[in-house]
Design goal:
By secondary structure, the protein is an all-beta fold. It has 2 helices and 43 strands.
Length: 477
């Protein structure tokens, strides 16, 4: 038997939980041929089809071919046949979430077969099944007229090398080196000494690739890491001197495991190592989360302290509309400043942020909260530039934390043998826990409790507590 669509409109549309199924009610296989008209297929299954599969010929208008479930039941057959004229009629058609599998005993054939050649293509993404992907199609090559998540793509990558955070070109001709994944492909060029601009042509990649681009063989250091490039030229992959820039091109955030593809173990010019699921950034560099992007490390991050004294040493910068997402009980060590822009997001989970500087540093949170917060640096001095909250416990092991702004500790414990110097604002301690240490602490206003719940604060350590203005003990505290 045969199904033929030659004009008119065909809609075969189901839902994610109830796909529409086309199959033979009896025995044997049938042909399914679409040569003209308008076709919309979404959330569907095709079974019992013949060796040509879903067969597109001529110039039909294809609106959707998403979330299809195809089964190859004929050895040597194909699940979809597409004429080059159909591809030309629907250039750059993108089909999402299709599955390509084989029935029992079928071990040869194709997912998609193209008849004819064309410079246009169809794209299949988020595909699955034992016969999905580039290795099971039949077209002119890789990527050819059918392109998959694992097809080989070639794009131009360009950007500018700056001596700062995007204002001043580097001023010298530098070698720019790009590595795909763990070094499967390399590209090298030089940047302009006057403008800092560089271009790398025909960079090849497939799938969810990671690009690591950095200055190579120079006393000047810079590195940018991104993942999930699109099949279009990447024009803003900039490098900032003394910065490790983290970003992504599609929706999935960059992780430490992505960065482990290529790090300072592979080339000492790279300003970080990513070993054992943890990230360590060179003490002379800043971790810079690109505006509008998310960094989700999936392990502990250490920004080394003890740099040469530049303000960016050991610093993290969470830029406008960018996100730093901690998970579980990760422990992140910050050897420099903490800067969050007014639209930045920090998701702390149950993590600990530990500041480890041995000199004066600044902290700006822009309304974001910490979970556990620790200060632990000999002679370190940390100054808050705005109000802050620690939703669990604060530990001041050594060094001095100071502020003129409000600060809240909601887990009940404020302890350690370092120094707290709050010369302004209100310092709130809520919850049951210990308060104090070996040294004397100074506050402007100090408040215990928020008035709800019956909670107890116990003084610990030999240090005195001095309140310059008002001490408040809330009801039930």
């Amino acid at each position: 038997s045969a199904v033929t669509v030659d004009g008119g409109t065909l809609e075969m549309v189901g839902t994610s939980t109830a796909p529409t199924t086309l199959q033979n009610q009896g025995s044997g296989n049938y042909s399914f041929n679409i040569s003209s008209g308008t076709t919309t297929l979404k959330y569907f299954k095709i079974r019992n089809i013949n060796s040509s599969g879903l067969n597109f010929s001529g110039t039909p208008h294809v609106i959707d071919l998403d979330y299809g479930d195809f089964l190859l039941e004929v050895n040597g057959g194909t699940m979809i046949t597409i004429a080059s004229t159909t591809i030309n009629q629907n250039p750059t058609e993108k089909n999402i979430g299709c599955g390509f599998s084989t029935s029992t005993g079928v071990n040869s054939g194709y997912n998609v077969t193209v008849n004819g050649t064309t410079t246009n293509y169809w794209r299949f993404t988020e595909h699955y099944g034992n016969f999905d992907g580039e290795s099971h199609d039949s077209d002119s090559g890789d990527p050819g007229e059918i392109q998959w998540d694992d097809s080989l793509h070639f794009i131009d990558v360009s950007g500018t090398v700056f001596s700062d955070e995007g204002n001043t070109p580097i001023g010298t001709e530098e070698i720019v080196h790009l590595v795909v994944n763990n070094g499967i492909r390399h590209s090298t060029t030089t940047c302009s000494s006057s403008t800092g601009a560089y271009t790398l042509s025909d960079v090849g990649f497939s799938g969810d690739a990671v690009f690591t681009v950095y200055l190579d063989g120079s006393s000047k250091k810079a590195v940018t890491v991104t993942r999930s490039p699109k099949e279009e030229n990447l024009t803003d992959l900039d490098l900032y001197q003394n910065r490790v820039i983290v970003r992504h091109e599609q929706t999935q955030p960059l992780t430490i495991s992505n960065m482990a593809n290529y790090d300072s173990d592979n080339d000492s010019d790279i300003l970080y190592t990513a070993n054992g699921g943890n990230l360590t950034v060179n003490k002379e560099a800043e971790l810079y989360i690109w505006p509008g992007k998310e960094f989700k490390p999936g392990g502990n991050v250490t920004l080394e302290s003890g740099g040469s004294g530049d303000w960016w040493d050991g610093t993290i910068k969470i830029n406008s509309s960018s996100t730093f997402t901690a998970q579980g009980t990760e422990h992140h060590y910050i050897g420099g400043n903490w800067f969050a822009s007014s639209t930045a997001i920090f998701n702390p989970a149950n993590s600990t942020i530990e500041f480890t500087a041995t000199s004066s540093k600044k902290i700006r949170v822009s309304g974001n909260s910490f979970y556990n917060l620790t200060f632990n640096g000999n002679n370190g001095i940390w100054t808050f530039e705005d109000s802050a909250t620690c939703t669990n416990n604060l530990t001041i092991t050594q060094g001095t934390a100071s502020s003129t702004h409000n600060f809240s500790v909601l887990g009940g414990n404020v302890t350690g043998n370092g120094n707290l110097n709050w010369s302004g604002g209100n310092f709130l301690v809520d919850g049951t826990g210990n308060f104090g240490g070996a040294n004397s602490w100074t506050f402007y206003n100090l408040t215990f409790g928020d008035g709800s719940g019956t909670e107890t604060t116990s003084k610990t350590g030999n240090g005195n507590i001095e309140v310059k203005n008002v001490l408040t003990i809330a009801s039930n505290q």
